[in-house]
């Protein structure tokens, strides 16, 4: 009898010590009414999961959860999985989150998955303030991953961010897949996904409709892979703006393929300020892209100056752009100049390669324009290459 009991006890012990815990935020006190502040329950779930030696899961059941700015900080003892079936909403008064850098922040985490879920920052109040030209807080990013490694973000939906929807900063090995991003085309500064100082980020099978860049790629981005992204409305997929600072990390090895741009302000763009800088862009492949009435389908702009307020515009950009390939890019341009390279005269673009680029404007020929750009063209290239 004692022997049997010992056996049962040891089986039970094995069962509990090997099973992974699930921390349900509702069990920890979160209300699903979208009106009661749920932040503390989420933080409690995080501290339990993060301090556990097992790879535990935080579960967010269906419902609406009112969230104030929240910081989910590592390092954790093991990886953490966050499974969301509900919607996280920001307070309707935009000021509550607008002065925090980020509404939802994951920082210094090694091993994290965020699966499913909807986040709604209710950015309209801040956009209205900005559009009215009042003095407004700068606004919060919706979800930020800072100094995080080995992260998977899958099936997340983000509505109406105040500024950027998703930010990946100082990270390694991040997979973003099947995300959906939605904000109106006139919403200011609402970049879809911003990546900087990060290596090995992949963004796949995602839909991005927003008011600024669908994806913006900042300094220090290396080995970025973007595939099957539907962009538009939005400002396209942009490397830059770069060269704002004299000392700046470069961007290298970026692939953008199998993607579409519909009614966007740009297709694939590289932009840098006309200022001295030691930054660079090296090794970019744009492949199999469709432009549906995109303005500036292919553009390099090294005299970028968004508010036309650049007293130093006469200067040249120090950013060196090289080895950029455009392969199999087709469709329609909403402006006559479909291929436009405005490179720096002190640092001309080199190794630009156009292959099978076919872009039309109003059923007719589009134009291409080159300044300080050199490279080669092959295959069918319409408009004709100016390289
Ligand atoms: C470029 O980045 C891709 C991932 O996007 C990676 O698979 C490849 O190895 C990188 N190439 C080099 C030369 O680092
Ligand atoms: C750069 O382009 C401008 C405009 O086309 C041209 O005037 C200038 O001579 C070019 N500079 C060099 C170094 O080719």
UniProtKB/TrEMBL annotation:
Active site per database record: 235
Keywords carried by this UniProt record: Cell wall, Cell wall biogenesis/degradation, Glycosidase, Hydrolase, Secreted, Signal
GO molecular function, one term: polygalacturonase activity
Coiled-coil zones: none
GO biological process: carbohydrate metabolic process; cell wall organization
Leader sequence segment: 1-21
Protein origin, superkingdom: Eukaryota
Record's subcellular location: Secreted, Cell wall
Pfam hit, one: Glyco_hydro_28
Family per similarity comment: Belongs to the glycosyl hydrolase 28 family.
Protein name in the entry: Polygalacturonase-like
Classification of source organism: Eukaryota, Viridiplantae, Streptophyta, Embryophyta, Tracheophyta
């Amino acid at each position: 009898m004692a022997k049997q009991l010992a056996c049962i006890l040891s089986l039970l012990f094995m069962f509990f010590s090997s099973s992974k815990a699930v921390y349900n935020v509702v069990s920890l006190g979160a209300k699903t009414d979208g009106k009661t502040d749920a932040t503390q329950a989420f933080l409690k779930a995080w501290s339990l999961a993060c301090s556990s030696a097992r790879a535990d899961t935080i579960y967010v059941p269906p419902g609406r959860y009112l969230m104030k700015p929240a910081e989910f900080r590592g390092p954790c003892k093991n990886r953490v999985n966050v499974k969301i079936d509900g919607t996280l909403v920001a307070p309707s008064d935009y000021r509550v989150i607008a002065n925090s850098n980020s509404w939802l922040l994951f920082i210094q985490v090694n091993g994290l998955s965020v699966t499913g879920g909807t986040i709604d920052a209710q950015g309209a109040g801040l956009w209205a303030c900005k559009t009215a030209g009042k003095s407004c807080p700068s606004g919060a990013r919706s979800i930020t991953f800072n100094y995080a490694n080995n992260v998977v973000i899958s099936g997340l939906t983000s509505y109406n961010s105040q500024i950027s929807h998703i930010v990946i900063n100082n990270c390694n090995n991040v997979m973003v897949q099947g995300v959906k991003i939605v904000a109106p085309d006139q919403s200011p500064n609402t970049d879809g996904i911003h990546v900087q100082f990060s290596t090995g980020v992949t963004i796949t099978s995602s839909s991005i409709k927003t008011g600024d860049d669908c994806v913006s790629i900042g300094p220090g981005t290396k080995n970025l892979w973007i595939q099957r992204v539907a962009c538009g409305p939005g400002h396209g997929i942009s490397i830059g703006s770069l060269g704002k600072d004299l000392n700046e990390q470069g961007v290298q090895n970026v692939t953008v393929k199998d993607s579409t741009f519909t009614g966007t302000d740009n297709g694939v763009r590289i932009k840098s300020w006309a200022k001295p800088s030691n930054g660079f862009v090296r090794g970019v492949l744009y492949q199999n892209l469709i432009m549906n009435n995109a303005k500036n389908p292919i553009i390099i702009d090294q005299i970028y100056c968004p508010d036309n307020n650049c007293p130093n515009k006469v200067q040249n950009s120090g950013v060196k752009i090289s080895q950029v390939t455009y392969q199999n890019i087709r469709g329609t341009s909403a402006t006559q100049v479909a291929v436009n390279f405005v490179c720096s005269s002190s640092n001309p673009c080199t190794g630009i390669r156009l292959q099978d680029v076919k872009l039309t404007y109003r059923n007719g020929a589009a134009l291409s324009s080159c300044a300080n750009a050199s490279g080669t063209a092959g295959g069918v290239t319409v408009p004709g290459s100016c390289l």
